[in-house]
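Now read this:
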Amino acid sequence: MKDKIENLLAENPWLEVAKKVKDNSYFPLKKNVYSGDKEYIKRFNDKIQDKDKKLYKYRLKLLPEPFWGNVLDAEIVILTLNPGYVKAKNNDMYKSLHEDEKKKFIKEQCEAMSLKSTEFIPSNPVRNSISDFYWDKRTKHLRDKFKNANSKIALVQYIGYTSQNYKNMYNTITTELLDTQKFTVRLVKYLIEQERVIIIARGKKLWLEAVKELNDKNANLITLDNYRNTYITPNNCKKSGKWNLIEERLDNK
C-alpha cells in the first residue's frame, strides 16, 4: 500500500501547477492550468458562445481545486463535479485581502492540489469564506456529531477547474478524459480498493462511466437522494439505506 501511495503522490499532475505557483512566490499565474489539459480547456472556452461564457467558462485565473481534505487517509470521500464560481467571493473578496492573506490562501490551495491537506473544512476563515462556506454547510451534521470528522472526510472533483456552472466538453472537444481526470480515476480506484465509503454527490452518470468500479456491486457506494441538495445527512441517504456505514467509519476511527 505504501508503494501505491507514493506512486499516486509522484504521478499527481497537479504538482506541476502547484510548483509553478510556488515559484511565482505563491501568486497565481495568468492561466493556472496543467500543461496536458491546456489545449482542451482553451478549445472549450473558445467554443462557448458569448451568451454562455459567464455560466460555463473555466476561470483559469483561479487556482484549480481538484481535492479537499486528506484524501488518501479519508474514510468518507465525496465525489462531485467541479468547483463553483461566485464572483463576490472568488474574485472580489480575494482582491480585497492583504498580500500576506493572499499568500497564505494560495499556499493552502497548493497543499490541497498536492494531496497534502490534513483537514476537510479549512481552519483558515478566509479560505472557508472564499469557498462560500459551501461544504462547511453541507457536512455540518457530520462534523457536529463526530469530533474527528474533519480529518476523515475528503472530496474529489470530476474536473478541477472552476466555473459558475458545469457543462460537459466531451464529444464536442474531446472523447477522452483530461490528463488530470485520468489521474483522478486512478485515485478513486485506489480509494475503492481500500474500501473507503464513497458518496456520489453530483455527476453520478459521469462518475459511473469514468470509474467502472463504481457500481451496484460496491457495498461502500452511496448516492445522495437529491443531487441539487448535496447535504450529507441521513435524510439525503435514505434510498441507499447505507447511512450506517458513514457513522460506523467516523465513530470507530
The CA atoms of residues 225 and 238 lie 7 Å apart.
